[in-house]
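sanity check both lines:
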Amino acid sequence: MTIPTLRSGTLRASLDPISGAAITSITDSHHEFLAPKFAAPGSLSFDVAGWQTMFPNAGAACHYLESAHPAHGEAFHGSWGFVRLNRGSAAVRFASTVLPLSIDREVAVDDVLREVTVRDSIRNHADHTVLFQYGHHVVFSADEDSVIRAPSAKMGHCVSGDFSGDLGKGISVTSILDAGPEGLAVLSVPGSVWLESPYDDRCVRLQWSTDLMPTLWVWASRLGGRNGRWSYAVGLEPVSSRGFGGLADAVRTGEAASVGPYSQRTSNVAVRLGSLTRNISPPA
């Protein structure tokens, strides 16, 4: 199947509904902002790439309500159906087979705003409240000089290794790599984080709905070297819960998200592209 590409001006976003509705590529004037496919870091046993969805499980595989939930959930691995496909936007839908939940999604590219946006409506088709996990697994390309910055963020726990840093002032990609293969959790992020790459004067801003995703998972992986410089993949993952133990663990700790009977929850996530010399980067 040919992967459709949404277009607006020089902005492009490729959408693969067969592979978890992944946005496999975001380019501006042929410059790629997402990381290529590679083996997942840490304990995950599959390849990751681009922008994928974690639902209704996030983190480790688990059993919940007598059903098996794969790592990062059905929506991460399964097929989504196209509802509509236009030049600059698309609508896709996912229905869970283990919980009475579905996602109706709108994806759009906007060359004026320099943004790719994903708007989700999570619907409960049952007569009772349903618990779930939800998040966006966004993996950007970076280099050894790249810095992650989130004003007013509060650091959470490091899953492995030792780490200290001020995300408001900026932390380097290499310091996150040193934190260990599972990375670290960043708590109380106010819905925006920047990845800045001074070497090529580029940055991206990831912005999301914090009512459904109050936590940001962050990790980095070294991909290889070229022209004397290392390239990296940086995972910035807004998610509904802090722990990596999956839905069963989130229910146990009270961190699972919920949606009421025959109700819906909505989420907005946007990636904005720009440069450090223009207007989307936060103050130093």
The first strand starts at residue 5 and ends at 8.
